[in-house]
What we know:
By secondary structure, this protein is mainly beta. The chain is about 15% helix and about 40% strand. It has one helix and 13 strands.
Amino acid sequence: MTKLLTQQGLVFALLLLTLTFAGCGGSPYEFAQVTGKVTLDGAPLENATVQFQPQRTGESVLVGPGSVGVTNSQGEFTLRSHKGDEGAVVAPHVVSISTFESKMVDPKNSDAVKVVSKERVPSRYRAPSELRVDVPDDGLSDAKFELTSK
Length: 150
């Protein structure tokens, strides 16, 4: 009898684990593909980090994860979430763009930082940014950010 209860307990535990992990595979947010182009004063902006941060809508307190992409030599980017999902959450977003990059020279000294690339993007396009975009259900294949230095 004890052996039967142990086997039933094992079967129950395996069933519970299966059901638990079955719900963990996907994201609770709807993502849509987002690609686009960034220019500064009409020229493609290379090596710029483009960040989309979803904004709260309606009564929901959940906004979802942000997404990021880096522009190529033509200023083109493709977004991925910080968790690896392609695109961005379907929602309104604040967009920030930056070219600043630094790296830590000495892990024991947080002040020992080397500037890899200087900021070329005016502050109004960085956090907090004036750029806004809505990501629809069918995504964006032509998000254009035409930045000006003036």
